[in-house]
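Q: What would this chain look like folded?
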Amino acid sequence: MYMFKYVMKRLGLMLFTFIIIFTMCFVFIKLLPIPTNALPGQDPEIIMKTLEGRGWITNIREGENGVWEYDRVPILLQYGTYLKRIITKGDFGLVTTYGEYIGYDIWDVFVSHLPPTILINIYSTLIGVPIGLGLGILAALKKNKWQDQLINIFIILLISVPSIVLALMLQYVFCFKLNWFPLMVSTSNDYFSWEVFHSMIPAVFAMCLGSIAGYARYTRAELSEVLTGEFMLLARTKGLTKRQAVFRHAMRNSMVVIFPSILSEFISVLSGSLVIEKMFAINGVGGLYLNSIIFQDYDFFMLLSGFYTLVSLTAGIVIDISYGFIDPRIRMGAK
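A: My prediction, written as structure tokens:
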């Protein structure tokens, strides 16, 4: 009962937080100038009529020298129209200024770019988690020995160097100098082919190196603390070998802190990496987000901002809830 109340409370707070952030994004976006410039070959009147149909402007009229004039619809009225379309019709809008997708349904474009983002993040998680945990366990078991010192140096380097620099180094060494991998990820839609996977390897490692360092650091810290506990001495005196004591007792207790971060990593696979996707020309959601800002496509920006916000909030609530399932002694929401 305590857990159920806690989950309901957290879901309510998550929804409330999401509404506040989403509303703030909409209001701030609508305070910006409305992009009405026609691209070569486009009819300005069609653009204005499209914006009027979406409920953003009204009273369109052609002014002097062929300049179109209009009145803005009040922001709160725009927001109500926008939410009504989403809730009743699932209509997130049409692409109005994002060059190659003008006239396309925003939701369809978004969904078509999800697979590469999800796939590259799943690969990075599947590679980063075992390597990070393995290095952390080794460092804890060999604490203050040369293996521990070497792993600590490796962790500090990965944490200190920005991911964009690591990505550039991977591109330069393995893609340019050694020519083991292509500089850009394959554009093929056969996502599970060897060609696509081979081209994704540099981007995957560029994304997971930071995660590896984080997992290794947390695992070493938690496992080192657990290994010095009195219950570990009791386990050894009962006849358990060092290996049995470590994997049956120490690892289980240290996972109370480590496992929620792994869960959040799996939840966050949808969020992707804006910089890495751009550097390796991955045709994913990250590129759409950056380009929606460049092209000032406000409806596109709203959908992607809502998506990233929802993913972040979901990851946070999953971490908090998972503590109670991992360790029954933790009663979330109990007084």
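The chain has 13 helices and two strands.
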